[in-house]
Amino acid sequence: MAHPQVVVSKAIKSLVAHSMLVELYLSLAAQTIWQGYGMLVDPIKMIQTNRIMK
After folding, report:
1. What is the DSSP letter of 43?
2. 19 within some domain
3. What is the pLDDT of residues 8-34, one digit of tens each?
4. What is the count of structural domains for the chain?
5. 43 belongs to a structural domain
6. To the nearest 5 percent, what fractions of the chain are helix, strand and coil?
7. Could you tell me the residue range of the domain that residue 50 belongs to?
C-alpha cells in the first residue's frame, strides 16, 4: 500500500493538470466562439451602417 499522503498529492497533481487542460480548452473554445460571433456580427453591422449612410 502506498502512503496516503503520496496518493493524495498524486491525485491533486493529476487534478491540477486536468483542470489546466480544461481551462486551456475552454479558453480556446471561447476564443473560437467569439471569432465566429464577430465574423457573423461584422457583416450585419456593415449592412446596417450602409443603410443608415444612404
Report:
1. H
2. no
3. 999 999 999 999 999 999 999 999 988
4. 1
5. yes
6. 95, 0, 5
7. 27-54
Strands annotated E in the chain? none
Residue 45 is assigned to a structural domain of this protein:
yes
Q: What is the rounded CA–CA span in Å between residue 51 and residue 49?
A: 5
Return phi, psi of residue 27, to 5°: -65, -40
Residue 50's pLDDT band (boundaries 50, 70, 90)?
Answer: confident
What's the mean per-residue pLDDT of the chain?
A: 88
Cell triple for 37 = 460571433
Q: Is residue 51 part of a domain?
A: yes
Enter the DSSP assignment of 21.
H
53: CB partners within 8 A, 6+ apart: none
- Which amino acid belongs to residue 6? V
- Tell if the pTM clears 0.90, that is, is over it: no
